[in-house]
Known about the structure:
Radius of gyration: 19 Å
Number of helices: 10
Bound molecules: pantoate
Largest sheet: 6 strands, parallel
Number of strands: 9
Number of domains: 2
Strand order of the largest sheet: 1-4-3-2-5-6
Structural class: alpha/beta
Order of helices and strands: EHEHEHEHHHEHEHHHEEE
Oligomer: single chain
Strand content: 15-25%
CATH architecture of the largest domain: 3-Layer(aba) Sandwich
CATH topology of the largest domain: Rossmann fold
Amino acid sequence: MADLETSAPPAAHTIAELRETISGWRRQGFSVGFVPTMGALHDGHLSLVRTAVEQTDKVVASVFVNPAQFAAHEDLGTYPRQEARDAELLAGAGCALMYAPAVEEMYPAGASTRVDVGGPAEGLEGAFRPQMFSGVALVVAKLFNQVQPDVAVFGEKDWQQLMVVRRLVRDLDIPVEVVGVPTARDGHGLALSSRNAYLSAGELETARRLNGVLAEAGARAAAGEPVDAVEADAADALLGAGFDSVDYVAIRRTDDLSAFERTVDSPARILAAARIGRTRLIDNMAV
Ligand code: PAF
């Protein structure tokens, strides 16, 4: 169990600083947990940190807004950044080290390696945000090499990302145990997300309908209704609830995210992405 820290955890900004601290821990026989984040932390992130604290002796959390996973038209420039507040929140959750590298530290001039996971990275988010999972896989592979954790904790809110990371770890023989943590939700069931900060009060009301629509659709699919019809009805329901557009509602096999032919015949997940104003929300749940 990690010691609970009472003030902001020390921060490492370079790979050398990070490795110096972690090798000190390793010399003392501590296990290392890791939570990668892009900052703007909320209770969802802190539940990941607490899970890592329960499972390992010392926890590192990275705060790095990863340019490689944003397309040119996306919100890299405006993505919320609040490193000092993040440091305090991490300390409160028991994190022993915040790792906040600069972009030049992560991607020095001349860096050209790409990581293409294929499989679970294809379709869904991969279809609407083609650069996303290669950028995630690249930075997660680098972070795993930099931190070399025993356990790495990811949120189930980004279910497809979790499956991509599991495949990356399996295919590249990375010696880390990947742990998924159920999605943290507000009192109305809205999945916590740093991007919820973009929502106006009216948009928030609409956003809070997303999980109910998915739960109802998931129940219909579980009862044996044809997947295509359930997905189409759920997309209509989201538009009726006030979403401006729906990128997808998809019922897929839980692990490899492959599609069903007609009805659900093995463990399944319902996943969706929809837009309100300039905000794009994703959510998913077990069927
Ligand atoms: O889920 C996120 O916040 C990011 O995709 C991650 C895993 C930190 C990689 O940048």
